[in-house]
Design goal:
Elements lengths: L4 E7 L6 H11 L5 E7 L4 E7 L3 H8 L6 E8 L6 H31 L2 H23 L4 H30 L8 H25 L4 H30 L3 H24 L2
Antiparallel strand pairs: 1-3, 1-4, 2-3
Helix pairs in contact: 3-4, 3-6, 4-5, 4-7, 4-8, 5-7, 5-8, 6-7, 7-8
Length: 268
Protein backbone atom coordinates (compact mmCIF):
# COMPACT_ATOMS: atom_id res chain seq x y z
CA UNK A 1 0.00 0.00 0.00
CA UNK A 2 1.30 3.43 -0.91
CA UNK A 3 2.55 5.49 2.01
CA UNK A 4 0.80 8.77 2.74
CA UNK A 5 3.49 11.33 3.44
CA UNK A 6 2.75 14.68 5.06
CA UNK A 7 4.77 17.88 4.82
CA UNK A 8 4.17 19.91 7.98
CA UNK A 9 5.72 23.31 8.65
CA UNK A 10 5.99 25.03 12.02
CA UNK A 11 6.98 28.60 12.84
CA UNK A 12 9.28 28.72 15.89
CA UNK A 13 9.61 32.38 17.01
CA UNK A 14 12.24 31.71 19.70
CA UNK A 15 14.57 29.65 17.46
CA UNK A 16 17.53 32.01 17.10
CA UNK A 17 20.65 29.82 16.82
CA UNK A 18 21.96 26.28 16.18
CA UNK A 19 21.41 25.43 19.86
CA UNK A 20 17.64 25.60 19.44
CA UNK A 21 17.96 23.72 16.15
CA UNK A 22 19.78 20.89 17.92
CA UNK A 23 17.16 20.84 20.69
CA UNK A 24 14.43 20.39 18.09
CA UNK A 25 16.30 17.61 16.29
CA UNK A 26 17.00 15.77 19.54
CA UNK A 27 13.36 16.08 20.62
CA UNK A 28 12.08 14.60 17.34
CA UNK A 29 14.83 12.09 16.56
CA UNK A 30 13.02 9.10 18.08
CA UNK A 31 9.60 9.75 16.56
CA UNK A 32 9.02 6.70 14.37
CA UNK A 33 6.96 8.52 11.73
CA UNK A 34 9.47 11.29 11.06
CA UNK A 35 11.27 10.87 7.71
CA UNK A 36 13.11 14.16 7.30
CA UNK A 37 13.61 17.40 9.25
CA UNK A 38 14.61 20.65 7.52
CA UNK A 39 15.30 23.72 9.66
CA UNK A 40 15.57 27.32 8.40
CA UNK A 41 16.90 29.38 11.33
CA UNK A 42 16.69 32.84 9.66
CA UNK A 43 13.06 32.21 8.71
CA UNK A 44 12.41 30.46 12.06
CA UNK A 45 10.68 27.59 10.28
CA UNK A 46 10.85 23.82 10.75
CA UNK A 47 9.59 21.61 7.92
CA UNK A 48 8.98 17.95 8.69
CA UNK A 49 8.14 15.14 6.28
CA UNK A 50 6.37 12.39 8.17
CA UNK A 51 3.83 9.59 8.12
CA UNK A 52 0.54 9.81 10.01
CA UNK A 53 -0.85 12.81 11.85
CA UNK A 54 1.25 15.61 13.33
CA UNK A 55 -0.26 15.61 16.83
CA UNK A 56 2.73 13.90 18.49
CA UNK A 57 5.18 16.22 16.74
CA UNK A 58 3.23 19.30 17.79
CA UNK A 59 3.11 18.12 21.38
CA UNK A 60 6.86 17.48 21.51
CA UNK A 61 7.68 20.89 20.03
CA UNK A 62 5.43 22.59 22.58
CA UNK A 63 7.44 21.04 25.43
CA UNK A 64 10.50 23.05 24.27
CA UNK A 65 8.75 26.35 25.07
CA UNK A 66 10.04 28.00 21.90
CA UNK A 67 6.63 29.30 20.89
CA UNK A 68 6.26 26.79 18.04
CA UNK A 69 2.94 26.80 16.20
CA UNK A 70 1.58 24.98 13.17
CA UNK A 71 1.97 26.99 9.95
CA UNK A 72 0.83 24.49 7.31
CA UNK A 73 0.35 20.76 6.79
CA UNK A 74 -0.40 18.92 3.55
CA UNK A 75 -0.20 15.50 1.97
CA UNK A 76 2.62 15.21 -0.53
CA UNK A 77 3.12 12.64 -3.26
CA UNK A 78 5.94 10.09 -2.88
CA UNK A 79 7.62 11.62 -5.93
CA UNK A 80 7.93 14.95 -4.15
CA UNK A 81 9.40 13.64 -0.88
CA UNK A 82 12.13 16.14 0.10
CA UNK A 83 14.59 17.08 -2.52
CA UNK A 84 17.33 16.43 0.03
CA UNK A 85 16.45 12.72 0.02
CA UNK A 86 17.04 12.51 -3.73
CA UNK A 87 20.34 14.39 -3.36
CA UNK A 88 21.44 12.03 -0.58
CA UNK A 89 20.66 8.98 -2.70
CA UNK A 90 22.59 10.35 -5.70
CA UNK A 91 25.64 11.27 -3.59
CA UNK A 92 25.71 7.91 -1.82
CA UNK A 93 25.60 6.00 -5.11
CA UNK A 94 28.52 8.07 -6.40
CA UNK A 95 30.72 7.55 -3.35
CA UNK A 96 29.75 3.87 -3.14
CA UNK A 97 31.01 3.26 -6.69
CA UNK A 98 34.22 5.21 -6.04
CA UNK A 99 34.96 3.22 -2.87
CA UNK A 100 34.18 -0.16 -4.44
CA UNK A 101 36.57 0.64 -7.28
CA UNK A 102 39.41 1.56 -4.93
CA UNK A 103 38.70 -1.42 -2.66
CA UNK A 104 39.31 -3.84 -5.52
CA UNK A 105 42.28 -1.84 -6.78
CA UNK A 106 43.98 -1.61 -3.38
CA UNK A 107 43.36 -5.16 -2.23
CA UNK A 108 44.85 -6.57 -5.45
CA UNK A 109 47.82 -4.20 -5.57
CA UNK A 110 48.30 -4.45 -1.79
CA UNK A 111 48.71 -8.23 -2.01
CA UNK A 112 50.95 -7.89 -5.07
CA UNK A 113 53.10 -5.26 -3.33
CA UNK A 114 53.12 -7.04 0.04
CA UNK A 115 51.92 -3.80 1.68
CA UNK A 116 49.99 -3.95 4.92
CA UNK A 117 49.18 -0.26 4.51
CA UNK A 118 47.45 -0.82 1.17
CA UNK A 119 45.63 -3.92 2.39
CA UNK A 120 44.45 -2.04 5.48
CA UNK A 121 43.25 0.85 3.36
CA UNK A 122 41.44 -1.52 1.01
CA UNK A 123 39.56 -3.02 3.97
CA UNK A 124 38.70 0.48 5.09
CA UNK A 125 37.36 1.17 1.59
CA UNK A 126 35.29 -2.01 1.82
CA UNK A 127 33.90 -0.86 5.18
CA UNK A 128 33.00 2.48 3.60
CA UNK A 129 31.28 0.74 0.69
CA UNK A 130 29.14 -1.25 3.11
CA UNK A 131 28.38 1.92 5.07
CA UNK A 132 27.27 3.73 1.93
CA UNK A 133 25.16 0.72 0.93
CA UNK A 134 23.49 0.71 4.34
CA UNK A 135 23.03 4.46 4.13
CA UNK A 136 21.26 4.08 0.79
CA UNK A 137 18.86 1.75 2.59
CA UNK A 138 18.31 4.42 5.23
CA UNK A 139 17.68 7.35 2.87
CA UNK A 140 14.07 8.45 3.29
CA UNK A 141 13.58 6.06 6.20
CA UNK A 142 12.55 6.95 9.74
CA UNK A 143 15.08 8.92 11.77
CA UNK A 144 15.36 6.02 14.23
CA UNK A 145 16.30 3.64 11.41
CA UNK A 146 18.98 6.07 10.22
CA UNK A 147 20.53 5.96 13.67
CA UNK A 148 20.38 2.16 13.67
CA UNK A 149 22.19 2.05 10.32
CA UNK A 150 24.90 4.36 11.65
CA UNK A 151 25.31 2.06 14.67
CA UNK A 152 25.65 -1.07 12.50
CA UNK A 153 28.29 0.73 10.42
CA UNK A 154 30.23 1.68 13.54
CA UNK A 155 30.29 -1.85 14.95
CA UNK A 156 31.33 -3.26 11.59
CA UNK A 157 34.22 -0.83 11.33
CA UNK A 158 35.28 -1.78 14.85
CA UNK A 159 35.38 -5.45 13.84
CA UNK A 160 37.59 -4.61 10.86
CA UNK A 161 39.93 -2.65 13.13
CA UNK A 162 40.41 -5.67 15.41
CA UNK A 163 41.06 -7.94 12.41
CA UNK A 164 43.64 -5.49 11.09
CA UNK A 165 45.50 -5.29 14.40
CA UNK A 166 45.78 -9.10 14.45
CA UNK A 167 47.34 -9.09 10.97
CA UNK A 168 49.78 -6.30 11.88
CA UNK A 169 50.95 -8.29 14.92
CA UNK A 170 51.36 -11.41 12.78
CA UNK A 171 53.64 -9.55 10.39
CA UNK A 172 55.60 -7.90 13.18
CA UNK A 173 56.66 -11.31 14.47
CA UNK A 174 58.31 -12.19 11.20
CA UNK A 175 55.86 -13.02 8.44
CA UNK A 176 56.01 -11.18 5.12
CA UNK A 177 58.62 -9.36 3.01
CA UNK A 178 59.38 -5.69 2.43
CA UNK A 179 56.58 -4.04 0.43
CA UNK A 180 56.94 -2.45 -3.01
CA UNK A 181 57.13 1.23 -2.08
CA UNK A 182 56.45 2.47 -5.62
CA UNK A 183 53.13 0.67 -5.80
CA UNK A 184 52.27 1.87 -2.28
CA UNK A 185 52.81 5.51 -3.20
CA UNK A 186 51.16 5.47 -6.62
CA UNK A 187 48.02 3.57 -5.63
CA UNK A 188 47.60 5.53 -2.39
CA UNK A 189 47.92 8.80 -4.27
CA UNK A 190 45.03 7.89 -6.57
CA UNK A 191 43.00 6.60 -3.62
CA UNK A 192 43.64 9.94 -1.89
CA UNK A 193 42.20 11.81 -4.87
CA UNK A 194 39.20 9.47 -4.85
CA UNK A 195 38.51 10.08 -1.16
CA UNK A 196 38.88 13.84 -1.49
CA UNK A 197 36.24 13.69 -4.22
CA UNK A 198 33.96 11.58 -1.98
CA UNK A 199 34.39 14.00 0.93
CA UNK A 200 33.56 16.95 -1.31
CA UNK A 201 30.39 15.24 -2.55
CA UNK A 202 29.26 14.36 0.98
CA UNK A 203 29.96 17.81 2.43
CA UNK A 204 28.15 19.45 -0.46
CA UNK A 205 25.02 17.49 0.51
CA UNK A 206 24.94 19.48 3.80
CA UNK A 207 23.01 16.72 5.56
CA UNK A 208 22.80 16.44 9.34
CA UNK A 209 21.20 12.97 9.30
CA UNK A 210 23.09 10.40 11.36
CA UNK A 211 23.78 8.04 8.46
CA UNK A 212 25.23 10.86 6.32
CA UNK A 213 27.31 12.18 9.21
CA UNK A 214 28.69 8.67 9.68
CA UNK A 215 29.63 8.56 5.98
CA UNK A 216 31.54 11.85 6.31
CA UNK A 217 33.45 10.53 9.35
CA UNK A 218 34.51 7.45 7.40
CA UNK A 219 35.68 9.47 4.41
CA UNK A 220 37.55 12.05 6.50
CA UNK A 221 39.47 9.17 8.09
CA UNK A 222 40.30 7.80 4.64
CA UNK A 223 41.92 11.05 3.50
CA UNK A 224 44.25 10.92 6.53
CA UNK A 225 44.95 7.23 5.94
CA UNK A 226 45.88 7.71 2.27
CA UNK A 227 48.34 10.48 3.11
CA UNK A 228 49.87 8.25 5.79
CA UNK A 229 50.35 5.33 3.41
CA UNK A 230 52.09 7.62 0.91
CA UNK A 231 54.50 8.84 3.61
CA UNK A 232 55.10 5.25 4.77
CA UNK A 233 55.94 4.24 1.20
CA UNK A 234 58.73 6.82 1.00
CA UNK A 235 60.06 5.78 4.43
CA UNK A 236 60.10 2.13 3.31
CA UNK A 237 62.25 3.20 0.36
CA UNK A 238 64.64 5.21 2.53
CA UNK A 239 65.03 2.60 5.26
CA UNK A 240 64.65 -0.61 3.20
CA UNK A 241 62.46 -1.91 6.03
CA UNK A 242 58.90 -3.22 6.25
CA UNK A 243 58.44 -1.66 9.69
CA UNK A 244 57.11 1.70 8.39
CA UNK A 245 54.46 -0.16 6.41
CA UNK A 246 53.42 -2.12 9.52
CA UNK A 247 53.37 1.05 11.61
CA UNK A 248 51.06 2.81 9.15
CA UNK A 249 48.92 -0.32 9.08
CA UNK A 250 48.58 -0.17 12.87
CA UNK A 251 47.81 3.57 12.71
CA UNK A 252 45.19 2.98 10.03
CA UNK A 253 43.36 0.49 12.20
CA UNK A 254 43.63 2.79 15.22
CA UNK A 255 41.95 5.52 13.16
CA UNK A 256 39.36 3.00 12.00
CA UNK A 257 38.66 2.07 15.63
CA UNK A 258 38.31 5.72 16.70
CA UNK A 259 35.96 6.39 13.79
CA UNK A 260 33.89 3.38 14.84
CA UNK A 261 33.62 4.74 18.38
CA UNK A 262 32.51 8.17 17.16
CA UNK A 263 29.89 6.65 14.86
CA UNK A 264 28.51 4.40 17.61
CA UNK A 265 28.15 7.48 19.83
CA UNK A 266 26.47 9.37 16.97
CA UNK A 267 23.91 6.57 16.61
CA UNK A 268 22.74 6.76 20.25
Amino acid sequence: MKKVIHRTTYVVPKMDCPTEEQLIRMKLQDVQDVISITIDIPARKVTIFHLGVHDEITGLLNTLNLGAYLFASEITDDKTVPEVIQRQRKVLIQVLLINLFFFFLEVVTGIMAGSMGLVADSLDMLADSIVYGLSLFAVGAHVSRKKTVAGIAGYFQGLLAITGFVEVIRRFVGYGENPDFKMMVIISFFALLGNILCLYLLQRSKSSDAHMQASMIFTSNDVIVNAGVIVAGFVVYITSSRIPDLIIGAIVFAIVAMGAYRIIRLSR
